[in-house]
Amino acid sequence: xxxxxxxLLALAAVVLAAAALAGCGSSKKSGGGSSTSxxxxxxxxxxxxxxxxxxxxxxxxxRSFQAVIGEFNKTxxxxxxxxxxxxxxxxxxxxxxxxxGNPPDIATIAQPGLIEEFQxxxxxxxxxxxxxxxxxxxPPDFVKLGTLNGxxxxxxxxxxxxxxxxxxxxxxxxxxxxxxxTWADFLTAARTVKASGTPAYSIGGADGWTLTDLFENIYxxxxxxxxxxxxxxxxxxxxxxxxxxxxxxxxxxxxxQSNVNxxxxxxxxxxxxxxxxxxxxxxxxxxxxxxxxxxxxxVATKTKLRAGSGYSVFPFxxxxxxxxxxxxxxxxxxxxxxxxxxxxxFVTFLASPQGAEAWARRGGFSSPNKSVPASTYPDxxxxxxxxxxASAQTFRFDMSDLEPASFGGTPGQGEWKILxxxxxxxSNVSGTQAQLEAAASKAFK
Length: 445
Fold this sequence. Notes:
three-stranded antiparallel β-sheet; 2 domains; D-Maltodextrin-Binding Protein, domain 2; six-stranded mixed β-sheet; 13% strand; alpha/beta; 445 residues
């Protein structure tokens, strides 16, 4: 992928634990003879074969995934897993391989729409063999996300929490502001920060997807998950009153140009990395940036601030009754193109707590697996953003990633361009709705 998207399971942990306990009990009774534990270990050790995995992960992420493979091989030493890093070109690489009849055994895909396309073509294989593991370890909304026509085809292994607000600790402290929990408190905090001499918001408006992220977080909380699903599928129109209400709330952030670093002109010329740098430079040019849990990666390359003392994070504020435990996110999903015993073993391992913990303890990873203890994550910041993925009562995948790319994910057109125009003129709610509806109608034909 060419943008900062969250690129958003099978040997069941419960079954494994039960097998292990049964084995221990059997060993005591038999006095060292043949045991369930020994049989289970032998069965695992007998699985052999080679697996090809094509993934988006490069650099540190690739090294972390290689560590996961190493952990898997402790149990399955006869299975060879070969990983190919495709980076942002993964959709093209995998689509070309599928078209040529030679897909990888497993791919990590960040777009549910692409997985559905592979499923319709008969290329993606169901992973119902892992359903028990995934159901035991994943919240229902994640199981639903990977289900197509009654069968499970994917699960989010590496998640992304996009319902976060990152802030400069000194800027909020100087203004006497603490992390707000509700939308009303959030707006009050922003005005207080402005009064202290620092604009509250840094907006990366040059990248239209940052604006879709803001809209989606507001809309899910304000309109609710059912409306969110309907709008995603264009089952309701963008001229619906719920969209107008969300746009008006969005305008409460972007409409006060004096509280946005650079005003509307500056925001429209600011890309995402610069929007982060604006907040975490010294002195800060803004106090907060509203974006996902990939912000620290930019902080690490652009500034010298430390987590906790220099920068921190709070959850996207609650709106009305639709705020607590609500997460918009993304993630990289495990998708299978060849079904073999080795593939089944590896997919099951990735879906287990052990498979997630192998990366989580290294950092730079958020798992929707609710069986991963929060203590596994290496620091408080990671725990703050990772835990809501697994505990969310309502999780929805990034709306624009679920829509046709011509509407939801293309620079210079569709949602990206129309919301950039809205940033330039946030009073034009009805006109923005009409433009969104016209573009959506064309894309969903």
